[in-house]
Amino acid sequence: MKRVLPCILLPLLASCVTDPDRYASIAKRDVENFTIADPAGDVAALGMTAPSPQLLRRLQTIAGGAQNAQAEFNSSAARARRLAKAAAGAAPSDRRWTEAQVAFATLAAAHSNTMSALAELDLLLLTGEDQPTSAADIGRIVATRQDVSMMATAQQTVLEQVEALF
Prior knowledge:
By secondary structure, the protein is an all-alpha fold. It has helices at residues 4-15, 53-86, 95-127, 135-165.
């Protein structure tokens, strides 16, 4: 076995000493030496353009719609909770159950408006509608989407909590 080992290792070691210009290196390339400290950092220093005014207006409209839906959701949540607690264990024919269901539907409708804003942002990212022209445009869309997504996730949690009260 000791005689066979050098015969096996010798060709393997020889392959490590081949011409470096002939094969690709696995060393880190210059482009891989970067960090993403601030995605909304100095765009001009990177040679990119600022977000387009048209896109900014569209994002403000979408974000405004999501914020309105959030305000509507917040104003409906306490009432829906209170009515759902009062209707706990009630039969569907009971007036308390019906009122709780209507309050829950109002809450779900506000959540639906937030989800519509989220879907609109997803379409904006996927289809390139309004033609994002730079990384700053994409970054702005992604940041707005993250904000709206956090709203939608929090709303979904509240909806599940209220539904569990029935």
